[in-house]
Amino acid sequence: MYQINAIDDFDVTEFTDTFQLKETTAPDAVLVRSSVVPDSLITNHLLLVARSGIGTNTINIDACTKNGTAVFNTPGANANAVKELVLQSLFASVRPLQAAIDATAELSGDQLQAKAEATRHQFVGGELYGKTVGIIGLGAIGQRLANSCYHLGMQVIGYNRSPKNLQHVQQLETIEEVLQLADFVVLLLPLSDGTRHIMAAKQFREMRENATLLNFGRGELVDQDALLTALKQGQFHHYVTDFPHRDLQHNSAVTILPHLGGNTIEALSNSANITLQNTRDFLEAGTIRSSVNFPTADLPFTSPQRLTFFYEDRPTFWADVTAVLNQFGLPILEMMSNTRDTVGYTIVNTNLIEHHLTINQRTELQQALSALPGMIRLRMLDNPSELLPVLELQP
Ligand SMILES: NC(=O)C1=CN([C@@H]2O[C@H](COP(=O)(O)OP(=O)(O)OC[C@H]3O[C@@H](n4cnc5c(N)ncnc54)[C@H](O)[C@@H]3O)[C@@H](O)[C@H]2O)C=CC1
Ligand SMILES: O=C(O)C(=O)COP(=O)(O)O
């Protein structure tokens, strides 16, 4: 039974045949939303970190890769939720609905309708139709947002590091070109070394005076000191952010939400289900779907056992593995292999039972494979299916 440390809340009731929640310092797996995963949890035991959500900036991915720990996330699972919140924020940017609701609630006495209508001049709004939205980051959320804005009659422009094949977006070569044209700029980028402070003094100077900047990516995409200066100097009109910070509070040019983007019943349940499913499939079968540091790998588990290798990719790695398997007389019933950047991952279906490996031989096999240059993590898995024979090791 695998030990799982859930840093945030997860309902694992349906998965208790594979794993149990435990607050241990050396878990086999960590489940997390956007809380920080402490480096101290990245021990030899840690097989995976599963992030329910998309941003993995609170996880030390390099340390996980070096440790042979797979990091999963849930691409697209909360994209619609974020898109709808951005739309809600766009509408709220042009119509002072909350102020009107609050003022109407304060009215009393007779002739309420007439009194209320007499206040309407204070709440005249604008329209999104015909305005220009500039979307920076045209991924799962950005693309959905672009389509919705197009159907609202907006002009949609955007920027992505690698241009995308999109029907309704005029993609520009630089962020600055987007900033010069947009009434609304929406940040939907991941946080990385390449995107930190992607919006700084130089970029704010390119923005239109009437523009609103909406940041639903991450707080650190924006250089906050430069932002506050730009707002003070009237370089642009308003900042809406989903990422609270003390220095942004009590500023009438700033609207702060408490990181609500993916916070719908649907998105939370989609993301959590995918997270738990990915966790079970990796722990039981070594299957890799939607990992940010391991290559994708999925092979039906049709044999009594399987071996999985995560390794630094090099030309003769596979020949070396085969030589060790031959030495122990182990068959390769089926295999699949995939690489990503400098690492590789291989699954080999095999049968230790038929080949009567003793406990000692199994240990020796593990040692020989682990000693191969570049091997980062080796796993030997028994098929959890009740239909297959259980391995009975000879003493
Ligand atoms: N406010 C909230 O609750 C949420 C915030 N997010 C944030 O939004 C981000 C985007 O989410 P998705 O659209 O689902 O992810 P995604 O991975 O589908 O899209 C990210 C896009 O950004 C592009 N990109 C990456 N680096 C870039 C750079 N330096 N310059 C230009 N483009 C670059 C990628 O090519 C990709 O198209 C997440 O990484 C997360 O930080 C995501 C979900 C919820
Ligand atoms: O998916 C993301 O990156 C988010 O920011 C939303 O995550 P959370 O609401 O913290 O689970």
Automatic annotation (TrEMBL):
Coiled coil: none annotated. Residues 306-383 form the ACT domain. One of its GO terms (cellular component) is cytosol. The keyword Nucleotide-binding does not apply. Pfam families: 2-Hacid_dh, 2-Hacid_dh_C. The keyword Cell wall biogenesis/degradation does not apply. InterPro entries: ACT-like_dom_sf (IPR045865), ACT_dom (IPR002912), D-isomer_2-hydroxyacid_DH (IPR050223), D-isomer_2_OHA_DH_cat_dom (IPR006139), D-isomer_DH_CS1 (IPR029752), D-isomer_DH_NAD-bd (IPR006140), NAD(P)-bd_dom_sf (IPR036291). GO terms for molecular function: glyoxylate reductase (NADPH) activity; hydroxypyruvate reductase [NAD(P)H] activity; NAD binding; phosphoglycerate dehydrogenase activity. It catalyses: (2R)-3-phosphoglycerate + NAD(+) = 3-phosphooxypyruvate + NADH + H(+); (R)-2-hydroxyglutarate + NAD(+) = 2-oxoglutarate + NADH + H(+). Keywords: Oxidoreductase. Pathway: Amino-acid biosynthesis; L-serine biosynthesis; L-serine from 3-phospho-D-glycerate: step 1/3. Its EC number is 1.1.1.399, 1.1.1.95. It comes from the Bacteria. It is an enzyme of class 1 (oxidoreductase). PANTHER family: 2-HYDROXYACID DEHYDROGENASE-RELATED, GLYOXYLATE REDUCTASE 1. Belongs to the D-isomer specific 2-hydroxyacid dehydrogenase family. Catalyzes the reversible oxidation of 3-phospho-D-glycerate to 3-phosphonooxypyruvate, the first step of the phosphorylated L-serine biosynthesis pathway. Also catalyzes the reversible oxidation of 2-hydroxyglutarate to 2-oxoglutarate. This is D-3-phosphoglycerate dehydrogenase. It comes from Secundilactobacillus odoratitofui DSM 19909 = JCM 15043. The lineage of its organism: Bacteria, Bacillati, Bacillota, Bacilli, Lactobacillales.
